[in-house]
Fold:
Amino acid sequence: MKYYFSTIAQIVLKDLKIESRTKETIIPTFIFALISICVFHISLSFGVISYQKISLAIWILTILYSSILIMNRAFARELESENLNGILTSPIHYDALYFGKLSYNIIILGSVQIILSPIFSILFEINIFNYEMLLIFLLSTIGICSVGTTFSIMTAFNTIRDVLMPLLLIPIQIPLIIAIIESTNILFGFSNSSDLINWILLLVSFDAIFLVVSPIAFSIIVKN
Amino acid sequence: MIPTNNKSEIQISKISKYFNNNAAINNLTLDINKGDLITFVGPNGSGKTTLFKLISTILTPDSGTIKIKNLNTRNKSQLIKSKIGFTSHDSFLYKDLTLKENLNFIGNLFQVKNLEQRILSLCQKFQMSDFINRPLKTLSKGLVKRASLIRTFLNDPEILLLDEPLSDLDVESQKILIEFLKNESLIQKTILISTHQMELCIELKTQIMIIKQGKLIKHLNTPSASIYTLKNIYAESIQSGDIN
Structure:
């Protein structure tokens, strides 16, 4: 068990070390997310509707597309010099590799959200800094990354992976997207419904299911 | 525990591996004993690298079985992997990490004891001590090859699979590697080498297996043969392609 967790830690530390030197994932993702919310803000500032009401949907859309950039890069560096084969020559458990990559993806997507949230908050004049929102952000980040990590290995060897990733990822994340939108709408009083707990439970269930299913699928893909 | 009383270290039984319906390995059977030093030679695309990837458990055969120390690679790959060191055409190293960081990473995955000491001793042996804190992307191809060899020997594996180990190495590094392999062979390590350089077979006095189209066509055990004789036998075998 100690070896299992040490493997996860080694993979995360290795990826963070490379990312801290190259910044090849976090900077393009942050810039993409920033441009997206700025474009939405500029477009809506001429609009006819109150953009606060749809600001959270813009946030979710931005984070979802940003996550695709992160997932597409997740295994890219493992393909250079056949590093994935290098890892696979060692006696690691394949699901430890999954959880290592998942943790790294969560850290990167989480960091993008942390840097972006004050800018978003100022632009859309909405306060997203409260415990309930933090919980929703955390659960949604885990959900997005748990599915995304498996799809990133599935598409890693495909030449059209940039196109394939959103096609595979977004449909499977629809329950997650609905749960985030509904729960945040309730939280900000944009919905009359009062079953916030149920939507949060749906987020928890989504995460729980994919945290069990994804490592199994990931191991099968890697093995084959 | 891994049983060690079986004579054959590696038992390959009727394995085949296909890529897009083309057989890279075609019904190959082979027994390799502990301490054997074997060179696999054959034209490009003859299946040498695929065979090494199958033995190292990176690939799984489409049919047939491979047993290493009596353990089937299909279901005991984790136990087997800790006993194998594999050098490929690619370095298996991260270009943005330093040599030391790369070796620490892989050493921890292999749970190497006294890792720091092992890294320093191998770097000294392969004359890489001056480059230990440099990112791989700043090193020449030859130095990266040396780094890749250190990575392979890091966990002190019982079975060495070396795919083109001399490529990119200068004469001095080749000598160091050959001396290293001679010493490893003396302590009964099983060493399998894939190469196009027949001189290596002479230098290490290895058995030679000639592979063509995924099949073993000749097995030579003539350690005292001259390079001229070996090259002639090789050329004849490849031309005729008879399965011996």
Notes: The longest helix of chain B spans residues 171-186.
